[in-house]
Design brief:
Rossmann fold; 2 domains; 280 residues; alpha/beta; binds pantoate; 10 helices; three-stranded antiparallel sheet; 9 strands; Pantoate--beta-alanine Ligase, Chain: A,domain 2
């Protein structure tokens, strides 16, 4: 596996692959890779001849009181895992490479509307940071196809809008969420959970399943949301939202039964977890 920290070497390698007529896939990550990330690599491989992964803990997508400084940085283990998984190249840029003018003074990419609801409302500026770094990464790697996890459902919508609106010639592929046996969606943040919190955390997925049953059973969406919130609160969560939206994240009319997604963001102690379930 090639490992690049600098842009010219990465670009030369990708250019050489493209001259050979090879299709390049890309999986952007913030590192601390787990089986969920490896599933993204596998899916990228299905859509491309060569796969590039990036590891960059992006400072601009963390709020001032969020976990940027404690976010786990495990580059050596990540590189070994990617190599063992037949990833072709790792791009691990420095902050100076990603933000040559520094953070705070960078050109920002701002996707309207869907970035200010749900996680965008609870994490102001988060999706500006995501859109900004992903646009940079796309320009640096210049992939033909990029894979994003469906677990970050709103992020996936933001990236899809970004790619379409700015006419990036990149196909976006959504990867199904990888779960532990008890239903908990895999996430680097799960390791912040205490053993007692880890026991409770699968309640999020169980609640999403009960939201799906509620919708299928004909309950009003408002009643389903209220029951979900109550269940999570009873289990010890502080709930940011437990909501049902249209697949494009717009607010559905209450009689809507198709094209829906249930989304939850809730905190257990200091750990914020998100998950979602397509209801069709
Ligand atoms: O999903 C993530 O890990 C990050 O938001 C991403 C897409 C790598 C941008 O920093």
């Amino acid at each position: 596996m090639f490992t690049f920290t600098d842009l010219p070497e990465l670009r030369a390698r990708v250019r050489a692959w493209k001259i050979e007529g090879l299709r390049v896939g890309f999986v952007p990550t913030m590192g601390n890779l787990h089986a969920g990330h490896m599933a993204l690599i596998d899916l990228a491989r299905e859509h491309a001849d060569r796969v590039v992964a990036s590891v960059f803990v992006n400072p601009t997508q963390f709020g001032p009181n969020e976990d940027f400084s404690r976010y786990p940085r495990t580059l050596d283990a990540d590189a070994a895992g990617l190599a063992a998984h037949d990833c072709d190249a790792l791009f691990a840029p420095t902050v100076a490479t990603m933000y040559p003018y520094g953070t705070g003074n960078e050109v920002k990419v701002q996707v309207p509307d869907i970035t200010t609801i749900l996680d965008g409302a609870h994490r102001p500026g988060h999706f500006d940071g995501v859109a900004t770094v992903v646009a940079r990464l796309f320009n640096m790697v210049q992939p033909d196809v990029a894979v994003f996890g469906q677990k970050d459902y709103q992020q996936l919508q933001v990236i899809s809008r970004l790619v379409r609106d700015l006419a990036f010639p990149i196909e976006i592929v959504a990867a199904p969420t990888v779960r532990a046996d008890d239903g908990l969606a895999l996430s680097s943040r799960n390791q912040y959970l205490s053993p007692a919190e880890r026991e409770v955390a699968p309640t999020i997925h169980a609640t999403l399943l009960s939201m799906r049953e509620g919708v299928r059973g004909g309950r009003t969406l408002a009643a389903v949301e209220a029951a979900a919130t109550a269940r999570l609160v009873a289990a010890g969560f502080a709930v940011d939202y437990a909501t049902i939206r249209r697949a494009d994240l717009g607010a559905p009319a209450d009689h809507t039964r198709t094209g829906l997604v249930a989304l939850i963001a809730a905190r257990l102690g200091n750990t914020r977890l998100i998950d979602n379930l397509l209801l069709d």
